[in-house]
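Hi R.,

Here's the chain you asked about this morning:
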Amino acid sequence: MKALWLILMLAMAPAWAEDWPEPNWPVDNTPLDWQAVDAYAFPERNASERSGIRTDALLIIRDGRILHERYSAPTTANTAHLTWSISKSVLATVLGVAQGEGRFQLQDPAARFYPPMQAHPEVRLADLLHWASGLAWQEDYEYAPLKSSVVAMLYTRGRSDMAAYTAARARADAPGQRFVYSSGDSNVLAAALRGMLGKGNYAQYPWQALFTPLGIDSAVWERDSSGTFVGSSYLYLSARDLARIGLLMQRDGRWGERQLLPANWVAFNRTLFAQAQATPGEANPGGHWWLNQPLAGQPLPWPDAPADAFAALGHWGQALYVLPSQKLVIVRYGDDRDGRYTHNELLKRVLAVLAKEEGA
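And the predicted structure, written out as tokens:
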């Protein structure tokens, strides 16, 4: 009997030892020297122009406890910051809950849930999650605005119904055969989610499925005129609330004692989509998340970070990094315009601080 009791106690011990933000994030007061990290992330800003690295928020969490936190005014710990394309990975997380409820399978055609995609009956939900719909798309912002599909979708002729604008695009490639980063693919997924849910359930579903269970109360998610969430771009979250999603992913979809996301969904998010071409310094696509895993014959995208690192990334320097082997979640919000900020440099400096701690 004693042996059985000991086995049960050992099995339960990890859950007892875990820290969760219930309701607030606990703090790790280990004295660490963050000077090199802050020097990179928070250089003096030029008040007259938007140049250089411009960090609005930096939040570093280890094993469920805040290690380091800093903000640039007017951003604070309570500010719901525009996440830009981090929205895509959060949308994928909401879809993971729906998948666990049996609402769809990855191989389902998108047209099953979003009728305008009947123009492209071979496109599966998995293809959209890999940004591989095969639909013609140009994801340029400042550099080629007149030819940009995403600018047209977000700001001009497509803005009233962004999924419909995307579904009306011509086919450029066979679905599932080529990675082409597309905010349009993400908005078709947002519309497909609407089709999976009963009438009247869609508007509250991200809160019901994800935000409320995680204790997130800062979320604002804009919808277009058709009522579809702008799953590509327009989610606002505080850094501390975004970190809750990072902790969920770091712990393989589990929140406390509840398996909120199916473990196989998180595995899909973290599985490399091989039909992509490596871009130096840029992470590679997984299931609507970004991975530090190398494509065949290529180096790690972020050479100073572990291969199991993955991230949600957004325009102008928004980032949610998850480093499972280090039990790290890092949120970085920014207002970068000139491309000087690099993911690898920030991660290298954070890991160097923690390596010094281990060597002390």
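The chain is about 30% helix and 15% strand.

Let me know if you need anything else.
M.
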